[in-house]
Amino acid sequence: MPINIPKQLPAREILEKENIFIMDTDRANMQDIRPLNILILNLMPEKEKTEAHLMRLLGNTPLQVNVSLMYTATYESKNVSRSHLEQFYTTFEEVKNRRYDGLIITGAPVEQIAFESVSYWEELQSIMDWAKTNVTSTLHICWGAQAALYHYYGIGKYGLPQKCSGIYKHSVTDPTVKLLRGFDEEFYAPHSRHTDVSNEEIEANEEVTLLALSPEAGAFLMISKDERNIMMTGHFEYDTHTLAEEYNRDMAKGLEAQVPVNYFPDDNPANRPVNRWRSHAHLLFSNWLNYYVYQETPYEWN
């Protein structure tokens, strides 16, 4: 089934070239099915790239998905035009009286700042509290995962001596969990962050279950006891070249950027990276949409 997005959204052209199944609202309305309504709180600076990353994965399941985009009203991104936000995005104030089947909260380049010092922290807290009653399931990514662990469960983050950047091998801790159905016992996933969370704190918290971890990159996937919150500290949504773009950006700024681990062949940035996480990324999003959204959400919200 397709993903339903606006005709003029720039990500649409990218997805069409990749033969991702998408449709417009007119055709979607003719189908006699109940689509899933997914809200994406996009906290990433390059919003158009993140839109394409996430919609690529949301559009590869048997379910029809309507996607809405939201940004924080208390902080205006400097890397996207105001006209793009006004045309394709909404604010929390505009949607707080609605119900959604699923919510995605992305990462953000603020991980080295204390949560309470982030300009939109209070707004994000309001959104996460609202999601308890207005959203069936929420997927939190990277800093969004750390924010959820801190806000809901009191699990903080700590700084790393150097950036965790690269493709890391992970082990599944419980293959019977629905989110990991079809996963190999070991799989690869991208990480890109300066902070981490404590495995010990997660394992000691009765409200959170650790599902997958890496010896080098730490905890990767966690799920709340009620299965309504899923936290992913890495970036399954990244495409093949995203880490290379981040590395080249940092080098151009004169930063002491380290070559992403296990990413470029022979660790040579001149070589084209090979994608080793795409199939598991699609599987994770498919499992989330099916088992935690579609199978759990009411046909009619009331």
Automatic annotation (TrEMBL):
Alphabetical keyword list: Acyltransferase, Amino-acid biosynthesis, Cytoplasm, Methionine biosynthesis, Transferase
Q: Which GO terms describe its biological process?
A: L-methionine biosynthetic process from homoserine via O-succinyl-L-homoserine and cystathionine
Site residues, Important for acyl-CoA specificity? E111
| Coiled coil (UniProt feature) | none
Q: Which residue ranges does UniProt annotate as crossing the membrane? A: none
Listed binding positions for substrate are K163, S192, R249
Q: Where is this site: Important for substrate specificity?
A: S192
Q: Where is the active site?
A: C142, H235, E237
Q: In which pathway does it act?
A: Amino-acid biosynthesis; L-methionine biosynthesis via de novo pathway; O-acetyl-L-homoserine from L-homoserine: step 1/1
Q: What is its EC number?
A: 2.3.1.31
- Superkingdom of the organism of origin: Bacteria
What InterPro entries does the record tag this protein with? Class_I_gatase-like, HST_MetA, MetA_family
Q: Where does this polypeptide localize? A: Cytoplasm
Instruction: Name the reaction it catalyses.
Output: L-homoserine + acetyl-CoA = O-acetyl-L-homoserine + CoA
The protein's job, in short, is: Transfers an acetyl group from acetyl-CoA to L-homoserine, forming acetyl-L-homoserine.
What is the name of the protein in this document?
Answer: Homoserine O-acetyltransferase
Q: Report the source organism.
A: Jeotgalibacillus soli
